[in-house]
Amino acid sequence: MSGTVVVAGGGDAAYYALDADTGERLWRVPLVGEPSAFAWASPLLAHGRVYYGAASSCDDPSIPGELVALGLDGSTLAARRFVPEGDAGAGIWNSPALSPDGGTLIVATGEDFEGYDGPYNRAIVSLDPLTLAARDPRPLAVISRVSPQPLPQRLRRHPQLLGDRLDRRPL
What DSSP state is assigned to residue 154? Predict the structure, then answer.
């Protein structure tokens, strides 16, 4: 929620903005790759923008992973795909996170698709929150396809920016 604007994903491959006072629909923005796309997670509202990720509805079929920044009026301000044109995968199945100083946006991407194994598949990526350009050409971390121990459920949800008691952060 930002001011009187509430934004949420719908079950119809779109995000919606509602007026918090009246419940009136302000806008509907379809996800890239609809109708196979699905709004899996809550959007992040920061910097007067709405950030959301796109992923497929259970890979049926898979779509290109994309992070989108909208204005509060529903206009597209920036978009970032994580696979080349014509490829699918690297879906964003969770909510983006913002660093405490507001200067870095973090997303975690998902699956590869039909063998495409690019640098941003199964990765944690840091981005400029205004342009969505990668802060580093390499991801912060790559999540292995095969792990001897599955991640705890609390770590599978979304990126979390943690610091120690001296306020040091791994960014």
Answer: G
